[in-house]
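We were asked to recover a plausible sequence for a given structure. The inputs and outputs are reproduced exactly as logged, with field labels preserved.

PROBLEM: sequence recovery
POSITIONS: 252
GIVEN STRUCTURE:
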């Protein structure tokens, strides 16, 4: 059975390297006794070089990447730089980056650059709001299709799709999606992936959920939400809360 996945997205936190080290140490400790769960920590880029990519039980992830290989691109970081540092995963298309103007076309270029360098992209998709007519499904479908435009069928097994409805991000467990709605949405995402790549290949894509996953809802969602794991934002900054989420997933 494929391992479950829990990804910590620290976003723009914490504000110093000593604090990052402390948080990483606790995360490492709480990840050490898991048997069925792969833990990935997406750190701010500035801290990536300070952590050993060979750390047992934890994989390093970045939060962003640029699609060009090298050259005059001030302020950007390439997939080769990440790869050479031992980083294995990278978020792409997070809604907070899309809100800053990142387009599906850019997401697609980043995703392809990551695959080419042998990194695993974590493609984030999600609607801003859920309308009763189901228009959000069209939005989701477009996001997935445009982001994966030109991505080869063979590369699909190295992809994680994180379904993160924007309306559920950065809130509380009570405001997160319920597992029934999530289950339906994951079926829809699987259908889109099957249309693009065929059923067999589509089944290899891990689909996870993000948006106010906390210790209170983790267990119920992982059992009934039809997902392979979680992308955890604010709750990953609190080691004890994160530990409970890890355990809920590992025990599921
Ligand atoms: P949240 O963030 O867990 O704080 O809602 C999730 C995310 O944005 O990845």
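RECOVERED SEQUENCE:
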């Amino acid at each position: 059975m494929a391992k479950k996945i829990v990804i910590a997205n620290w976003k723009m936190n914490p504000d110093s390297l000593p604090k990052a080290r402390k948080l990483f140490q606790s995360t490492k400790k709480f990840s050490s006794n898991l048997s069925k769960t792969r833990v990935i920590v997406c750190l701010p880029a500035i801290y990536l070089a300070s952590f050993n990519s060979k750390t047992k039980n934890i994989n390093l992830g970045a939060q962003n990447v640029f699609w060009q290989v090298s050259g005059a691109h001030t302020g950007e970081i390439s997939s080769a730089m990440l790869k050479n540092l031992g980083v294995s995963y990278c978020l792409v298309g997070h809604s907070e980056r899309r809100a800053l103007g990142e387009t599906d076309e850019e997401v697609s270029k980043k995703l392809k650059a990551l695959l080419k360098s042998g990194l695993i992209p974590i493609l984030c998709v999600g609607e801003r709001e859920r309308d009763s007519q189901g228009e959000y499904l069209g939005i989701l479908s477009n996001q997935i299709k445009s982001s994966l435009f030109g991505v080869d069928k063979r590369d699909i097994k190295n992809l994680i799709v994180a379904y993160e409805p924007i309306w559920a991000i950065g809130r509380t467990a009570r405001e997160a999606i319920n597992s029934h709605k999530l289950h339906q949405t994951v079926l829809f995402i699987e259908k889109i992936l099957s249309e693009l790549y065929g059923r067999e290949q589509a089944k290899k894509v891990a689909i996870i959920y993000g948006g106010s996953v906390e210790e209170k809802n983790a267990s119920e969602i992982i059992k009934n939400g039809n997902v392979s794991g979680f992308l955890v934002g604010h709750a990953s900054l609190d080691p004890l809360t994160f530990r409970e989420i890890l355990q809920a997933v590992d025990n599921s």
